[in-house]
Design a protein that fits this description.
With 438 residues, the protein is an alpha+beta fold. It has two domains: 103 residues, Rieske [2Fe-2S] iron-sulphur domain (Rieske Iron-sulfur Protein); 256 residues, Naphthalene 1,2-dioxygenase Alpha Subunit, Chain A, domain 1 (Alpha-Beta Complex). It has 13 helices and 21 strands. It has a nine-stranded antiparallel β-sheet. Strands 5-4-3-6 form a four-stranded antiparallel β-sheet, with no helix packed on it. Helix 1 packs across helix 2 and helix 2 packs across helix 13. About 2% of the residues have low confidence. Fe (ii) ion (FE2) binds next to loops. FE2/S2 (inorganic) cluster (FES) binds next to loops.
Length: 438
């Protein structure tokens, strides 16, 4: 029997959906913390943001041949991203048509079919039900042809970055990505002409709402405070504070439109200026070896190995950073899975790819000096806002100095919260509209 509390919760959720007023959570400059703590709001986000728009699922290099698959999520919906026998990408809901069990448990692999472990129903790479044990029990009731794994409504990729949507009425992918395309190209061309391919991944659970992690992708204000211990280490090792910690005036942040944002640093031309903030000894060895063994490619190899010093954040669940991307999977209102995917350069000398891995590990890796700081900062915000879900917090840094960027977005100093405001503007639009249709 459902408890009275359950029934009250259901009524509150229905009421929120019917009379959604985004201004109760975001007024353009502040955030009501229940945006990070309210389970009913989280459920509505899964429907109106993750269930209705484009969600990043993976990179083509993760699916090299027919039968390659990756199990992942679109909001609360488990899905299988798979290359079918003809080599086309499919996104299938990972939910057996018999009793609803997930049919694929592995995170990735090679398969000819997906077989449900509960009663043995088996589906091919296009989701068709091809085996139903003891079919006599269904004669005249249902046929296998009626019961494929349900597909996502649409799947598409931009230069190898794969997105899918559960909403057939969603705007075309390129339209949705358009404001961010120049920065996406900058990320994708970081090692040109060498192509990017996945070199490795790791994931972690953050005890924080997914939007806190999304915000962090364009937060240029936190670096020298959150990552102070790392900067102190760099001081000790290098005798000077790295450029990223020296003020913010040379960086900019932009709200690009459609909820996307970018924080961009200066490009450096000298090898000394490029010297990364972490793994300095490995870096010196790399530079020496690159010049010695690959004199003609050395400069390009060195430049591409440190990336472009940029984060481009694609609403709602992925940010492309130097060398890697960060994917978010909301699990509960206060729990998010974070996946990092590091990229190598296909065909580049091994030393270039080795230094890329070392650079990522040292700062953004599972035990990296930077990633661990950020995870703790998100947890602390979650803990703080849970105590006072109605006491508004600030999102107004730089309001007086941001300006139009001439392309429909807003631009400001790299420490400002301009891109976060852009993300919440899109959040409010989707939540109010009841979906991401065009
Ligand atoms: S739930 Fe999958 S075969 Fe029964
Ligand atoms: Fe950080």
């Amino acid at each position: 029997m459902r408890s009275l509390a359950d029934q009250k919760d259901k009524r509150a959720s229905a009421d929120m959906a019917d009379r959604f007023d985004a201004g109760k959570w975001f007024d353009g400059k502040c955030i009501r913390p229940s945006i990070y703590t309210d389970p009913a709001l989280f459920d509505l986000e899964m429907e109106r943001v993750f269930g209705a728009g484009w969600v990043y699922l993976g990179h083509v290099s993760e699916l090299p041949q027919p039968g390659s698959y990756k199990s992942t999520w679109i909001g609360k919906e488990p899905v299988i991203l798979v290359r079918n026998a003809s080599g086309d990408l499919r996104v299938l809901r990972n939910r057996c048509r018999h009793r609803g069990a997930t049919v694929c448990q592995e995170e990735r692999g090679q398969a000819r079919h997906f077989s449900c472990a509960y009663h043995g129903w088996t589906y091919d790479l296009d989701g068709r039900l091809v085996a139903m044990p003891e079919p006599d029990g269904y004669r005249g009731v249902v046929s296998a042809a009626e019961l494929p794994l349900l597909p996502a409504a649409t799947v598409d990729d931009y230069r190898g970055l794969i997105f899918a949507s559960l909403n057939a009425d969603v705007a075309p992918l390129r339209e949705y990505l358009k404001p961010a395309l120049p920065y996406m190209d900058e990320f994708l061309d970081q090692g040109a002409p060498w192509e990017l391919a996945v070199a490795g991944q790791f994931k972690l659970l953050a005890r924080a709402n997914w939007k806190l992690i999304l915000e962090n992708s364009t937060d240029g204000y936190h670096f020298q405070y959150t990552h102070r211990s790392y900067l102190n280490l760099v001081d000790t090792e290098q005798g000077e504070r790295h450029r990223v910690a020296k003020g913010t005036s040379v960086r900019f942040v932009r709200a690009l439109g459609n909820g996307h944002g970018v924080i961009h640093g200066p490009r450096s031309s000298s090898n000394e200026a490029r010297r990364p903030r972490i793994a300095p000894r490995e870096w010196d060895r790399f530079v020496e070896q690159a010049h010695r063994d690959h004199p003609e490619q050395a400069d390009r190899m060195i430049a591409s190995s440190v990336g472009s010093f940029m984060n481009v954040c694609l609403f709602p669940n992925v940010s492309l950073s130097d060398l890697f991307l960060r994917e978010l999977r909301p699990i509960a209102v206060d729990l998010t899975e974070v996946r990092h995917t590091v990229f190598k350069l296909v065909g580049a000398p091994d030393i270039a790819n080795e230094i890329r891995l070392r650079i990522h590990e040292s700062f953004n890796g599972p035990g990296g000096l930077g990633n661990t700081d950020d995870v703790e900062a998100w947890r602390r915000v979650q803990e703080g806002v849970q105590a006072a879900p109605d006491q508004w917090v600030l999102l107004n840094r730089g309001l007086m100095r941001e300006s139009d960027d001439g392309e429909g977005g807003r631009v400001s100093d790299g420490s400002d919260e301009t891109a976060m405001r852009g993300a919440y503007t899109e959040w409010a639009r989707l939540m109010s509209a009841g979906g991401a249709s065009r």
